[in-house]
Amino acid sequence: MTNILASKTALITGAAGGFGKAIARAFLDAGAQVVITDVNEGILQLTHQELSSLGPLHVIAGDLTDREMADRLIQTARDQYGKLDILVNNAGIMDRFDPIGELDMAFWDRVLAVNLTGPARVTQASVQEFLRDDRPTAKGGAILTVGSINGLRGGIAGAAYTTTKHALVGLTRSTAAHYATKGIRSNIIMPGLMETNIRTAYENGVNEEGRALAWKSLGVNPGHVNIDDLSKLVVFACSDQATYLNGAIISTDHGWQAI
């Protein structure tokens, strides 16, 4: 991939493994300076060892549900590279297919804290960074949020996860609308099934009726999404080659949600 992100600084959340790690690799290949964060410090350090030879890479472990974490992340980008140009909201956790009538509301609170409130806080802090008066380059920036087909459909996950992915569409489009004239772009991709570690949530059991409903939809799924290929789309969407792309909801699911 050409250096279409040269001179850009990017922050990627949930980047210790899976799709976040693939995005980090693609951003480094595209010439970006990258800050990655994840709650799993051990795996994060292994990712740093694997990818650091590809370009400027800094890691910071932390939990996005921590109210101060968003500001720490932005300050880290500024301290390491002088600024922030791109935010990729990738961090998230899966639920256990529970419908609302059978959902433990403490678990609901946890899923919303990680999947929605965390990205909202980092988005807020990033927007403030993009617009700061003493910014060393022109004001503005790009935000790419990793949504899900669950933000378009109702029966592939439980109430908590599905709600957060629908809500991220609203956060994305609101940000795009309010800051379009200020050089800030905000887009969301809606992947179908990917080979990631999100299924670790199932280790504690699942709601069998909810899973059975989801499996009906799986029967018409055209195929899994390759995370390395999809990461290249993220690079393009965040680059200056896509300045026209704002407020977009991009289905990346082999046409699954169209069926």
UniProtKB/TrEMBL annotation:
Entry-linked PROSITE patterns: ADH_SHORT (PS00061)
Keywords assigned by UniProt, alphabetized: NADP, Oxidoreductase
The keyword NADP belongs to this UniProt entry's keyword annotation: yes
GO MF terms, alphabetically ordered: oxidoreductase activity
Extent of the signal sequence: none
Domain of life, source organism: Eukaryota
Keyword 4Fe-4S recorded: no
Pfam families: adh_short (PF00106)
One BP term from GO: secondary metabolite biosynthetic process
Family: Belongs to the short-chain dehydrogenases/reductases (SDR) family.
PANTHER family: DEHYDROGENASES, SHORT CHAIN (PTHR24321), ESTRADIOL 17-BETA-DEHYDROGENASE 8-RELATED (PTHR24321:SF8)
Protein name: Uncharacterized protein
Taxonomic classification: Eukaryota, Fungi, Dikarya, Ascomycota, Pezizomycotina
